Amino acid sequence: WLTAPSPGRAARQQASVQSGTSDILKPTTMASDGKVQFKITLTSDPKLPYRVIKVPQDAPFTAVLKFAAQEFKEKEETSAIITNDGIGINPAQSAGNVFLKHGSDLRLIPRDRVGSAFA
User: Fold this and answer.
1) Beta-ladder partners of 19
2) Under a CB-based contact definition with an 8 Å cutoff, are residues 110 and 78 in contact?
3) With bands split at pLDDT 50, 70 and 90, how would you rate the model's confidence at 117?
4) How far apart are CA 114 and CA 88, in angstroms?
5) pLDDT tens-digit profile of 14-49?
6) CA 22, CA 43: separation in Å to the nearest integer?
């Protein structure tokens, strides 16, 4: 559902994406059509670009992480999503659960740029 649209169900389940730079964004809620919307900000860029991603609430959050990393041209294997308070999010849950627990404003961090202890 995160690939190019095709006729039928896959097209309806495809993630919707908007781009921009951080400003005021309309409040987001859980939609009545079974989808949730996340505003994901790239913290490693000083301009704080963001993507608004709308996905089915039962979608695995690992897919949301992978899609967001690809949108920002970051490696999904070394990226993590955190809340604005800095709390890490376990991706082994549904997008709906993440939305209910943490809200819609999230941050993508490329982990290879954070606290490397290798000498």
Assistant:
1) 51
2) yes
3) low
4) 13
5) 445 555 544 434 444 445 579 999 999 999 999 999
6) 11
Confidence at residue 112, expressed as pLDDT on a 0 to 100 scale? 67
Positive/negative CA dihedral, 52, 53, 57, 61? negative
- Predicted confidence band of residue 81 (pLDDT cuts 50, 70, 90): very high
Give the separation between CA 100 and CA 107, rounded to whole angstroms.
Answer: 16
Give me Rg for the CA atoms of the chain: 14
Tokens (6 digits) for 106: 């999230």
Q: Look at the block and give the residue holding tokens 């409040």.
A: 27
What are the phi and psi torsion angles at 82 (to 5°)?
Answer: -125, 165
Bridge partners (DSSP) listed for residue 52: 18, 39
